[in-house]
Design goal:
The protein is mainly beta. Among the domains are: 280 residues; 79 residues, Immunoglobulin-like. The chain is 4% helix and 35% strand. The strands form six sheets. The protein has a 23-stranded parallel β-sheet that branches. It has a 14-stranded parallel β-sheet with strand order 1-2-4-6-9-12-15-18-21-24-27-30-33-35, with helices on both faces.
Length: 593
Amino acid sequence: MNCNIIATALLSTTALVGYAQQSVTSIRDLENKASTLRAGDELVLTDGTYQNINLILSTSGTATNPIIIRAENTGQVFIEGNIKVELNGNHIVFKGFVFQNGKTAKEGDHTIKITGDYNTVSDCSFLNLGDPSRTKTSFDIYIYHANYNKIYYNEFIGKQSVGNNITINPGSYNEISRNRFSRPILGANSGSAIRLSATYNLVEYNYFFESDGEGEIITVKDDYNLLRYNTFRRSKGGLSLRHGDHCVVYGNYFFGESVPKTKGISIWGEHHFIVNNYFEDLKPVKTTNKYTGGKLQGAAVSFNCGSGPNAIRPTVPFFPVAHDVTFAYNTIITNSEMILDFTEDYLGGSTQKQYTPYNLSIRNNIFFERSDKKQIPFRNLSEASNVPDVTGLVFKDNFSFGNKNLGINTPATGLDTATSVAMQLDATLGIYTPIANPLLENNVNEPVNLPQIHTFAKQATIVRRDVLGKLKDTDHVGAVAFNPQSSRKIPEMTLLTTGPRSNTAVFPTNPIQANKVKHALYPNPASGSVYFRAKPNLVKAINAYKMQTLIASISFKYQNSAYELDISTLASGTYILEIQFPNKTITKNLIVR
């Protein structure tokens, strides 16, 4: 099933005419009338704040005439207290609501549970939900034995209790697109933003900002899933291919900004294709391990060790060793610890994690260190003397720039450090790209094939396009082609391109003291003026946006270790501030009182 066809059908629902539209002014009326809805009906809840909802919808619409339940205005219907919504029918569109400061009436229930097919949840906010004292998992959205559903343009902020924001278990051909996620540290498992215990699903164009629930921000636990064009920024964790095989991780961005515990990708299982990803300034956590001399380092990308069958899953390895994996055309910039690690989780012994990765193809990648002083270790055998070597490793046509002392014991070949090729920061794109060099291009003569593993992968093809979608003239290394010379904006997701499409949608950051946070904006909400923490003489311009529309250019001055912004001309509401530096642009959410 073509994912574009699904998206087109779902996006077109709002343009259909001829609905039997009804407006309701209370939750009770909404619940009562929902059971009477038929294909083509639309039920609208008027703006306001409401308490407690128990909405069970079992009737179905059709592909051309779905049932629509929506807020009168996106972001203006607030539902608090006990919250439970079930979409058990097919072809239902549910959109525009804000669920805040509430919880499910029953422990273990979920805010929205979907058991039907071809349903859409969009433009909703899930803010500070859950009861921290509860121990049973409760998901914001739970897709259960359901297919062809679409979760798009939502925001998931500040979840308080155990449970992932979105879980699919099981279901196929579902799409999670253009959502944004942020949550504080949970301190336990089941704190992921997304969990896929399902096959043939698509996760794309999502934005994870300080999404710190647990170390697995996205955890994939089944086969044939596609994860592309997602952005991870300042998030304490990474993308985990935990169980399952044959997944594609393509064109994602990992910006750590040197925040501790930020990571890239952890890999278990087989036949994954990890291609065209960009990693910058990650700072993985250090771990200790008696089998590796107590000095095992964290890594941007980990090819994990595995265990054999056990009593819990007697026919499947509980920790499936990484093998037959392709890691190609990726760019890694200034990682604070290891870049690649083949020894993570090695425990030795006869029952747990004694198998090391094998048959890995690591090719056509760029490793760039901005400092001449730092080493870039891949695997230091002096710290892992008891760990078996990786067998069947193809390490070829990889390049390292900016550092000649790599500290590599294995692999001993396949890394070019002699070819002098400079990297440049593209001010428009905000990422590092290599400057063209004939020596570099001529060294890459065996392109990597990306096979058709499932319908979302479109077609079997050689990797001909870079992470920007630009056609490569030759088979270059790294995620970005040489001298892209393109006005196309990097498909990095930001506050401007994700979350509810509304002037009033709120994206609060975690409550960390402003004087401890680089680039903090405080106080927030504010009126009259607001402060932005950054070094002097760096900020070039600040613009305020609503709905991607420029509202005003903000004047500012620097004093007392921060920039003071004059927001006296802004009307009350929610804005996104675009703050321009010489070589990058960042965004901050601001609420004006």
